[in-house]
Design brief:
The chain is α+β, with helices and mostly antiparallel strands. It is built from 9 helices and 6 strands, in the order αβααββααβααββαα. It folds into 2 domains: about 5-80, Arc Repressor Mutant, subunit A (Orthogonal Bundle); about 85-175, Arc Repressor Mutant, subunit A, CATH 1.10.10.
Length: about 180
């Protein structure tokens, strides 16, 4: 493919990723393939370089059932730098952020999932049950966690926005300081 054509496809990919077409941000690989052609992954590589110059990155969220299939993966345009507290405070309150952190720690400690009853028990030690129900519903709606058959997992947003290694490291270092 000609370099100029690839550049045009890369710019088109960035535009497509900016436009929200469903309740979830970004696009599935098959959607990008439909708009950009079979060489959509090459266009995404070039688009990633352009995004990088702007302080952005294209995150690829693998599909849980087909983790190696790029056509089923979700491609999301996001900032490279972590959001600050001021950025998060627009849609998450401090007790919601703290609850999310507690849930993610439990999920990490338990190998990727935690029973909902355990989450409820932990959070109701600090907050009223009605508030815990609200927080869990909000975190699910925003895509940070998902609950299926009484089991809580990380959802797409936690996978994309939270550096799990850095998160766990920060918690360990915080505990060592105490």
């Amino acid at each position: 493919m000609a370099e100029e054509e690839l550049q045009k496809k890369a710019i088109k990919a960035l535009r497509l990723l900016l436009i929200e077409t469903s309740s979830l941000p970004g696009l599935k690989g098959w959607e990008l393939k439909k708009h950009l052609g079979k060489d959509y992954l090459e266009a995404i590589k070039v688009a990633s370089l352009e995004a990088d110059r702007l302080g952005m990155k294209i995150a690829i969220i693998p599909d849980d059932e087909a983790p190696k299939d790029f056509e089923k993966a979700r491609f999301v345009l996001m900032t490279k730098e972590p959001l600050s507290e001021a950025d998060y405070s627009r849609w998450l309150r401090i007790e919601e952020i703290a609850s999310l952190a507690m849930i993610l720690v439990e999920i990490s400690l338990r190998g990727g999932s935690v029973p909902l009853e355990v989450v409820m028990r932990i959070l109701t030690e600090k907050l009223p049950r009605w508030r815990v129900n609200q927080i869990i519903a909000k975190l699910e709606r925003l895509g940070y966690i998902k609950e299926e058959n009484g089991i809580v997992f990380k959802d797409w947003r936690s996978k994309v926005e939270i550096d799990e290694t850095g998160f766990i490291k920060d918690i360990i270092l915080y505990r060592q300081d105490k």
